[in-house]
Design goal:
Protein name: CRISPR-associated protein Csd2 family
InterPro entries: Cas7_Csh2/Csh2, CRISPR-assoc_prot_Cas7/Csd2
Strand content: 25-35%
Pfam families: Cas_Cas7
Number of helices: 8
Order of helices and strands: EEEEHHHHEEEEEHEHHEHEEE
Shape: flat
Number of strands: 14
């Protein structure tokens, strides 16, 4: 069933003794706003976790394949689209990027039908073999921590070496040293938006939307690693508009979700915060759905 409503949502998640999103430009330190000290997690990182969850629960089968994934060769997926629409002959010759013509629209529609992340988040598929571009109905912001976070650096010891040459350098002591970066605790908030108009263009429907809510609620449960410590979804508050254009500005709705720290002491657990919702101030034509929290 096609989407006929606009949605805006708030996602709350936390991390304990882990690195929620390392910055490769800073030696993989946790991302931090340099001016405020508040932690950051990119929208790309959050989408990656959604993709991984959907790929896991749907076994990478159409219509829930994942386009952007580890070791994917994107042009090979584009080839599949032209084979799928019966236009493989358009790929012959050297100038593949310009080929396709009217079939580009068909190839784009094939990609939307088969790949969840294409119809959800969109994709630029005009590199190499041309399947056009898709603007996705789901948009996510960077997540930002409620309070400043402290990035800690830990020295760690590995009781082994990788090669015999390393062992010789260690003079019989195979210990090697490393570094690990963590945030003791951080509660993060991200905002998201769902456009029914763009959903109609990509074929993103009600079933896809329910899968998105499930992914946002459970994605950290299946993304455990020593580097990320404990990460959990603590709140998923969805504002459903009665209309496609919407009945209230998104920023006004987001302000209704208020997160307060309970004391001046450094937070080390979700219980150190109180999350409240000003439900009485929800405008007419908007319904709050508490998926988590």
């Amino acid at each position: 069933m096609a989407l006929i409503n606009r949605y805006d949502f708030v996602l709350l998640f936390d991390v304990k003794d882990g690195n929620p999103n390392g910055d490769p430009d800073a030696g993989n330190l946790p991302r931090v706003d340099a001016e405020t000290g508040r932690g950051l997690v990119t929208d790309v990182s959050l989408k990656r976790k959604v993709r991984n969850f959907v790929g896991l629960v749907k076994s990478e089968q159409p219509p829930f394949e994942i386009y952007v994934k580890e070791k994917a060769v994107l042009n090979n997926q584009h080839k599949r689209a032209y084979v799928g629409i019966g236009k493989a002959e358009l790929l012959e010759g050297d100038d593949k990027k310009r080929k396709g013509g009217d079939a580009v629209d068909e190839a784009r529609q094939w990609m939307c039908r088969n790949f969840f992340d294409v119809r959800a988040f969109g994709a630029v598929m005009s590199t190499g073999i041309n399947c056009g571009q898709v603007r996705g109905p789901i948009q996510l912001t960077f997540a930002r921590s409620i309070d400043p976070v402290v990035a800690l650096e830990h020295s760690i010891t590995r009781m082994a070496v990788a090669t015999e040459a390393e062992a010789e350098k260690q003079s019989g002591d195979n210990r090697t040293m490393g570094r690990k970066f963590t945030v003791p605790y951080g509660l993060y908030a991200a905002h998201g938006f769902v456009s029914s108009f763009l959903a109609k263009q990509t074929g993103f429907d009600e079933n896809d939307l329910e899968l998105l809510w499930q992914a946002l609620a459970q994605m950290f449960e299946h993304d455990r690693s020593a580097a990320r410590g404990e990460m959990s979804t603590r709140g998923l508050y969805v504002f459903k508009h009665d209309s496609e254009l919407g009945n209230a500005p998104a920023h006004n709705l987001f302000d209704l979700i208020q997160v307060k720290k309970n004391s001046e002491e450094p937070a080390r657990d979700f219980a150190d915060y109180t999350v409240s919702v000003r439900e009485a101030a929800i405008p007419a034509g908007v319904t709050l759905q508490r998926k988590v929290g």
